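Many introductory courses stop at the sequence. We go one step further.
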Amino acid sequence: MKEIKVGLIGFGTIGTGVVKLLERNASLLEERLGAALRLVRVADLDTTTDRGVRLEPGVLTDRAQDILDASDIDVVIELIGGYEPARTFVLKAIESGKHVVTANKALLARHGDEIFKAAAAKGVQVFFEASVAGGIPVISAIKENLCANEFRSVLGILNGTCNYILTRMTNEGDDFEAVLKDAQALGYAEADPTFDIEGIDTAHKLAILTSLCFGTRVQFEQIHTEGISSISALDIQFAKQFGYKIKLLAIGKKVGDEIEARVHPTMIPLHYPFADVDGAFNAVRMVGDFVGPVMLYGRGAGMDATASAVMGDVMAIARDITSGAKGRTPAVGTCLEAIRDLPIKAMDDIVTQYYLRFAALDQPGVLAQIAGILGRHDISISSMIQPERQIGGAVPIVLMTHEAREADVGAALAEIDALAIVSDRSRFIRIESEIE
């Protein structure tokens, strides 16, 4: 029986999951592949920690070069994360004629174009299902099952840490800082949670999704990115009264020949399926011109779910090797020569609805002044809440707008914040209430 030999760089949580899956499901994989997958090398700087899985003697090494130099390894799995040395290892594996499977969204969001071009030139494959939404097969769905469609939009809840925090804030009414501390204690958030809570992790994933869906190059740096650290329990409470939930949403849209690519807290109606995606779960929703809306939901992170995605990619490559196929599917779903550099729409030109919250003195005519300024900037009010109670010595005025241009909203809020009757900086949250 033919053997497909695999080398693994990175023996952390996900790497351990990969070894566990290979150990537990070896016979099943062999039956489905018609060949044997053999893990011949595992490289990690830490060769002493007991991961609770078994490796054959001589498999574990502290030198990634042992994998890159090995002439008999067919597939290299990269699971160390970050930009370097991951980029160097992946490019060296490609140069030596090895196929690559990676879960490294940051690497692909910044250096994907270089890596995919190198792989195409060398005639090897780079698979990366685990880089977005963990165990949810969204990458393969875009590249394979839905590839006959022209995509209009892709939206996602892509960070389990943020979704867990917002879910707790919504269900229990706690403030952000308190829930973050609990999330860290439970292992849902890192000791330094910046990449998660400030939207960076989500933006890396959106860069990959928008590039795949729209056949263009979207760099991480081009994506407008906001996190959830400024969301308050008060905003979540008012959102409920209007019939909405707040989620950290990744939004990619193709409007004419422009791309919208943005990550920020977003209010979505309670009756939308996205509103029911709670806890550490992820979801991705795509709209194709023929298939219409498709939503995928599941575990977006964790040892087992991510290992499942990694090994699905290894199996796909192994099937191509055993069948003699070569470059059957372009790495990014579109042939490299057909990829276009579409412009990213400036945030000032984004048109959407807005939730606005003002802290104003309890005086006659306050609402009229605020409404007048909004009107002068072409912003119309669709609904309003004005609680009777005071909060911090001021009365909150909460508005929902009709569609407005971001630049106009920014200008109006700056003018309102300069009023003597306003005691604190205005707050706003964008709304997606007409998801196609």
